[in-house]
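sorry for the late reply, my laptop died twice this morning and i had to redo everyting from scratch. anyway the thing you sent over, i finally got around to it. pasting the sequence first so we're on the same page, its 167 residues, then the predicted structure underneath. double check i copied it right bc i was rushing
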Amino acid sequence: MSEKNGTPATPAGSTGPRPEPLHFFGTTWVDHDHGYTARRIAVSVGSLACAAVSCLVLRFAFQGLQIAAIGDFVTVLVVVMFAVCSALAFRHTWEGFSKRPDPHRQASLRGLLAIGFVGSLLAYFLRSLSEAPGEKLHREEYEKARKDHENRTTRRTGNPSKKRRRP
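ok and here's the structure:
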């Protein structure tokens, strides 16, 4: 399958399914071509670097709390909040790679995911080590759509009334 500008080329008049592009990868995940490996490496390094910088920013925020001398109880609450939100964001992001998230649930978790952004970045990093994040889900959906399209468009050959019956 050839590709121009990130969209797969299809024969003229083709009505078959098209693969859904992935963020940072376009449709290179279909055939693992056009720099797919380099993109995976870049996404892995980029997401890990973003997670490291995010932890550094959180460290500065934590030092600000210590300088403000707000008390141990509030400091512990903030640390626990970031840890729990990061763990929940990691789990939610990881599950989003294997099944489509519910849009209503996604909207209700937006604040939690924003607080736990480090967990989401780490999930993205870990998944990009083995595949493009979300590739497995998109590949399953694309293969199913191609199979369904093929079954709908396949024409029978021969006269069915002359078909031999099995004993």
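The chain has six helices and two strands.
thats about all i looked at so far, will dig more tmrw
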